[in-house]
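Suppose you are handed a protein chain with no further information: no name, no annotation, nothing but its sequence. What can you learn? This example shows the usual starting point.
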Amino acid sequence: MDQATADRLRVKHPENTLSQQLSEQVGTSPAQTEKIIEILLAWAEKTYSDSRPCGQIVRTVVIATEPAGKPITHCQTCEVHLTVDHKDDLGILKAYGSVALRGARILRLSWEAYEQKAVLSYEDLAAILCLDRGTVSRQVRHLRKLGLVVPTRGLLQDMGRAPSHKAQIGRLLCRGYIYTEITALTGHSERSIERYALDLGRIIALCDMGSAPNDIRIISEITEKAVEIYVGLYQEHNVEEFRSHLDKLKRRFESGKGIIGPGQYPPKPPQNPAKRLSEQNYERALSQLMQQHLALTPAVADVVVEKIVALEKQLFPDRDQLAPGQTILLVDSAASAPKYSGNTSGDRPLVPVILSPWTQDKIDIMISSRPLKERRALIADALAREAKAQGGTMSVSCLAFLIGTSPAAMATALAELRLQQDDPTPIKGITEDAGATLTHKGIICDLQDLGYTPPEISIITCHEPDSRDRYLKANLRIETLIKVLGHIPDEVQTARFLGMQKSVTKQYLDRLRRKLAAEETPEAASQSSAQHSPAPSGDQAVPG
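A reasonable first move is to predict its three-dimensional structure. Written in structure tokens, the prediction is:
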């Protein structure tokens, strides 16, 4: 089929009718029209699709953030999926009767809507379950007398704050409800319930040790409000009637068995440098440029970019050649480090840099008699400095991909080279503290122990405040846990209480053990200080 025929048939597509109406009646641009149609089709698929699970319906309800007293016709609405017939409903009916099933459905529907950022009113529940409004009101009052939170529209407006899943599920766990019953009552998956059970077990263990609420907050790294909820549940149920259920939750946490929970995190999957490089492309850079200068939304900018790239391929099939051994990459902008460090890398601006990984100077390094690890490190160091000179910053994984080794091997080689350098290799792990390699936990915590202020630590170690404080906060959490336990725990117990990787907790614990050993003997103290104190780089002077 020739292009002219294809274009004529495309005009006759049903979507083109909608496109013409939007352009003529609303005045949207072609790119905006295309994106609007995409949104409408996605909405239609969600609302009218037959792919929903059995027992679910789609209901249009008011979003949770709408204030009380606002006319319903002016409220923003959304579509939610609600389960009117759950697989466990028959078991509740058989065991507890129809009234209990009615309450379970009201509770489940209310929480399902709340999970989707919406709220049901009494009239919504009455219409869905074919009940009168008075019956729904009585049933909700009965559930609340049992200590269960039913997040209806009226309750949210009266409370002023959204109800917490922690109190809702935690109370059921403390009273011995099994997971299938909690799932039927709340609509939460067993995996979600297990996470709450692990957190609650951790708080129970800490409360049994007599930990103060502030120590619990530091160790568990949860908010004061969450600590208040969990401690309140502990105090409410720490009586003979419910103590056996608290002990089960505590044993569940201490056993470390079951699905992944605190202290059981699997190793992070290896990053694929090729995928990251493929995402840092010309199209993404052009899209960011349009968003910045033309005030386009990301979705509309992507549509325009797609058309520009297609046109460019037709007009400019050939490009200027780089010098032999050179390549061009789009890498993260070094200027964006203070703003974007620690955030999603996909949001960072990109800059093009010309690198020379296979030029004669790099070849000379590679064929030299130096150890392979040192050769890789020297080439990576040169490439990182080339990128820095052009306003970019390289990551360890990107350098490893260019040189043909693994990120772990690359990180080890650069770490050893760092010991010989006054000016460290300008990679993200050094300039922004991004990634898990080339860690500075020991140096930063040692400097704090020596009395340096946080700004001085940032100057000495070239760390952003957020990165510096993340290390110091983790060290404080471990020191607080040691204070509560009365001894230095092992890596598994520490990881379980703090929810960290065992390998990370080991680094902090090893440092604290060295610190205690150094305090016992003056000779060891002087050796430890000489070993871990960083040398000033360049013109920087260590603050006195």
